[in-house]
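ok trying this again, last paste got cut off
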Amino acid sequence: MSRTRIKICGVRDIDTAFAAVEAGADAIGFIFVRSSPRFIEPDAAAEIMASLPPFVSTVGVFMNMQVDGFSDTEEACPTTYTQLHGDENAELIAACAPVIKGIRFAPNSIAEQLARLDADENVEAILIDGPSPGEGVPFEWSDLDPHMAIVSKPVFLAGGLNPDNVADAIAELRPYAVDVSSGVERERGVKDHGLIRQFCESVRRADAELDQD
C-alpha cells in the first residue's frame, strides 16, 4: 500500500499554506477561477508559493479558461502542476498539457470519461469530484469502485471529503491522492487550521490501518 497523497485546495493565505504543510499535506491548491469564493490572484499565489519549503507541490486550478488567460496566469504563478476542472476539450487540454483533469462523477458516464482520459497522453492524473464541485457533497464511492481497476493513471479523489469520512473513502477506493477544500473550512472560503490537521491525521491513520491488513 503506497502512501495516500494529500492536497489542500483553495488556499488563499500564507498562514493556511504553512498550516497545511506542517500537518503533512503534499500539495497546495490555488484556485484561479474568479467565480469561486476561494479565488486567489496569481500574484498573491506566487508570493505564497515562493515562501513554501522545498518538496511541497503547488497546483493551479483552472476552469474553462482560454489559452491566453492560462498562459498569463502561469507566467505570473508557475505552479508545479496544472488542474483543469471544467469542460475543456481535447484541444485545450493539449494546449495546457500536462494536466490533472478533473471530472464530475456521474454513474452513467464515468466509465467512458475514465477510459477517454486514461488514453489521453496529455493527462497525467484524473481527479474525480462530486456532482457539485466546491459544495462539500460526496458521491457514492461504491459506484466508483468497480471502475478504479481499469485506470492506469493516478486517481485523485475529491467531493465532500472531510476528517470524518476520508478514512472510509481511502479504505474503499485506495486512491493515489485525496483532495479537500470545503471539508476543512470553518466558513465558506475560509480554512480551519485545526480541521486541516485532523484531515491529514485521518489520512495517515487510514494508510497505517491498510498497511496492517
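PB: full thing came through this time. Residues 5-212 form a domain with the TIM Barrel fold (CATH 3.20.20.70).
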